[in-house]
Amino acid sequence: MKGRQIVLGQLWGREAAALMVDGQLQDLAPDLSALTPLPPGAVCRAVVDRLVKGQGGVFVRLPEGERGFLRGAHGLSEGQSLIVQVTGAATAADARKIANTIATSPLVKTAFAGGDPNWGRIMMATGRSGVELRQDRLALWIAAPDGDPLAIVRNGTPTDYRESDAAAVFALPEFIVHVDLGAGTGEATIWTTDLTHDYVTINADYRT
Known about the structure:
Helix content is 23%, strand content 31%. It is built from 5 helices and 11 strands; from the N terminus they run βββββββαααβββαβα. It is elongated and about 65 Å long.
């Protein structure tokens, strides 16, 4: 069928509108109240269910049959597994600035290398990022890629977590560090590495 049409119907039992162009789905505007809200700080495993062009995001299937919607998600494909983190920076730019400061901090990277869950170094990097913060809103979680989050800091103060549990996460070859500012809906994700003695030795022993 040629032309543009708006088709009204239901999706998962809720009202939805679809934009059809020449018989193909171009945009989908669902009632998002049908979806599971994720509070700031939530970390869960999800599977990409459906890409939505006009909405600039994707629907995801969450554990136990729940569904969610990720705004501004790009470069994903249907059926892809991913880790979803909801952060709370005032803006995405603030979130990126803090994430980059943590990821490039030599003190944080050497703590990663030593398997030392030194949350003070992570909070220090957060504080020196230049982003305006309120200490009483800060939160920090760590987690294995497929594990439950371990709360390390809540409302700006350390929780009663067990050091052995935190050390077990830092001993993994890959893990998640999640900082929430409690300041808004801005978010960012960045990949980083540890910084070992061997890295320093190798890069100090040759000239380029």
